[in-house]
Amino acid sequence: MADNELHHVHTLLLQLQDVLREKFELEEEIEVLPAALKEKEARLEAANAKYVELNDAYTKARQDATSNSIKYDDAVKARTDAEKLVEKITLQREYEAVTKQIDEARVVENALLKARNASNKLVDELDGQLKAQEEVCDVLKAEVEEEKSKIDGILKEKNEKIVDLDARCIQIKAEGISDDIYAKFCRIVKNKNGLGITPIIQGQVCSGCHMILPMQFVNDVRLGTSATEYCPYCSRILYYQEDEEQIDLSDFESSEAGEDFFADAISDDDFDNV
Ligand SMILES: [Zn+2]
User: Fold this and answer.
1) Interval between CA 174 and ligand 1 midpoint (Å)
2) What whole-number distance in Å separates Cα of residue 199 and Cα of residue 263?
3) Topology of domain 33-172, per CATH?
4) How many Å lie between the centroid of ligand 1 and the Cα of residue 210?
5) CB 36 within 8 A of CB 147
6) Residue 227: φ, ψ to 5°
7) Cα(210)–Cα(200) distance, integer angstroms
8) Cα of 271 to ligand 1 centre, how many Å?
9) What's the 92 CA to ligand 1 centre distance in angstroms?
10) Which residues, listed in sequence order, are joined to residue 197 by a DSSP beta bridge?
């Protein structure tokens, strides 16, 4: 392939890379956008569940309070009836029996009074808790609504930008990138942290993954045998820069930087197929 033609494709790919990076960044931002909303929705759901639970307890407490109140009223009536009876009694034996009845009625009455007061107190407590919980739910509901409308606005804005960037990609492609290279390149940029085309540095090193390349491969890239030569280690498209300063590779390999480069190359999931 002619030098200027090759240069043209590489220039286009570099331009495309910039646009793709921006697009993929936007897509990532869109993906994490609902995280805050989901967290708020989960809190609202938990608050609503607690409200339902409190409401059930409140309903039951009110039923208990009503029932205890009726029982207490009945007990009071039983005792006062017995007391009225005393006034009419003339026989000592009957008097003792009724007095005993009154004493027993008082014990029951007192117990029921305590029960009634306790259940009324519980009703008041639960009523307070229920009102407080209702406020919590209202606040959270408002927060969820606010977050939703905020996200909708941001999403709209980002999606519009993506449409523009897609159009720009198609424009660049039309200037001289084949369907095949375009599709592969988009995948590489996406999977390789936004770097899909990168120069060979130090005469024989891929600047994407820092692996030392086979000399024959470097020659192919240098001669421009094909428009696109993919790094055998990280699959990025490589190009050769004639003005790149050449250094002795044996120096490079023995240096600390060299070791770092290898560590990086291995830890990076560069062997994945793209
Ligand atoms: Zn590489």
Assistant:
1) 27
2) 20
3) Helix Hairpins (1.10.287)
4) 6
5) yes
6) -65, -30
7) 9
8) 9
9) 114
10) 237
3-class SS of residue 201: strand
C-alpha 231 – ligand 1 centre gap (Å) = 5
- How many angstroms is it from 195 CA to the middle of ligand 1? 10
In order along its 274 residues, the chain shows pLDDT tens digits of: 667 777 889 999 999 999 999 999 999 999 988 888 999 999 999 999 999 999 999 999 999 999 999 999 999 998 998 888 888 888 888 888 888 988 998 999 999 999 999 999 999 999 999 999 999 999 999 999 999 999 999 999 999 999 999 999 999 999 999 999 999 999 999 999 999 999 999 999 999 999 999 999 999 998 887 778 999 999 999 998 876 554 444 444 433 443 344 434 433 444 444 4
DSSP state of 176: T
Q: How far is the CA of 3 from the centre of ligand 1 (A)?
A: 22
DSSP H/E element including 273: none
Helix axes 179-191, 3-32, angle to 10 degrees: 50
Whole-prediction pTM: 0.64
Helices (H), the chain: 3-32, 34-88, 92-174, 179-191, 215-223, 249-254, 256-267
Of 151, 130, 157, 128, whose CA–CA distance to 41 is shortest?
151
Alpha-carbon separation of residue 159 from 43, 147, 237 (angstroms) = 28, 18, 29
Distance CA 26, CA 135 (A): 37
Alpha carbon of 264 to ligand 1 centroid (Å): 11
Q: Across the beta sheet with 229-230, what order do the strands follow?
A: 205-206, 197-201, 237-240, 229-230
Domain boundaries, the chain: 3-25+178-267, 33-172
> 243 C-alpha vs ligand 1 centroid, how far in Å?
20
